[in-house]
Design a protein that fits this description.
Largest sheet: 6 strands, mixed
Number of strands: 8
Radius of gyration: 32 Å
Number of domains: 1
Shape: elongated
Helix content: 25-40%
Distance between the termini: 108 Å
């Protein structure tokens, strides 16, 4: 009688449990893949944020290096037109700046290379690139707000030279940053 009972139970099962278990495995697999995809995306976003932050810090360092060049130079000479060795002639307001050209930062000779900056872990060393543009002169009122560089005494003359400094940095992962400042002396 036992064999007859087990035999009749086997005949009544239609494999519904197998189908339900397979469906659950598919759902769990899809959930696992979706969570892995999200984790990978967040890891990439974090890496891009770190890379962009590093490029920004290097560009800022290049900006400061160029400001020191301007501050400490007794005279700065500029080419009659275009850019040469990090010095650019007075730009025409109607034209695009030279540093905005497509391959300006990848072809040498037009920009100046600053002192390399290392990443926090020391694994990457990046050199900032910069240009100094002659922006002519400005009339100064001689007040405290006219002192741009607080490391030097204010210039009491009515005229000051104005320079636009543009610094560029890029990381090996492709993050690029351009920063600018106007500097008077």
């Amino acid at each position: 009688m036992k064999t007859m009972y087990s035999h009749s139970m086997r005949q009544r099962q239609s494999g519904a449990a197998l189908i339900v278990v397979l469906m659950l495995l598919i759902v769990i697999t899809l959930l696992g893949l979706a969570s892995m995809r999200g984790a990978i995306m967040q890891e990439r976003m974090a890496a891009n944020t770190i890379s962009r932050g590093l490029a920004f810090q290097v560009a800022e360092a290049g900006l400061r290096q160029a400001e020191i060049v301007v501050r400490d130079a007794s005279t700065i000479t500029f080419p009659p037109s275009g850019c040469d060795k990090g010095r650019c002639a007075t730009p025409d307001p109607a034209d695009e700046p030279a540093w905005n050209a497509r391959n300006f930062w990848t072809t040498g000779g037009q920009y100046q290379t600053g002192v390399a900056v290392k990443s926090a872990d020391g694994a990457v060393s990046i050199s900032p690139l910069f240009v100094i543009e002659d922006f002519g002169t400005s009339v100064s009122g001689g007040g405290a707000s006219d002192c741009v560089d607080v490391s030097k005494a204010c210039i009491s003359t009515a005229e000051q030279s104005v320079y636009r400094i543009t610094a560029y940095a890029s990381t090996p992962s492709g993050a690029e940053v351009i920063v600018q400042s106007l500097y008077r002396r």
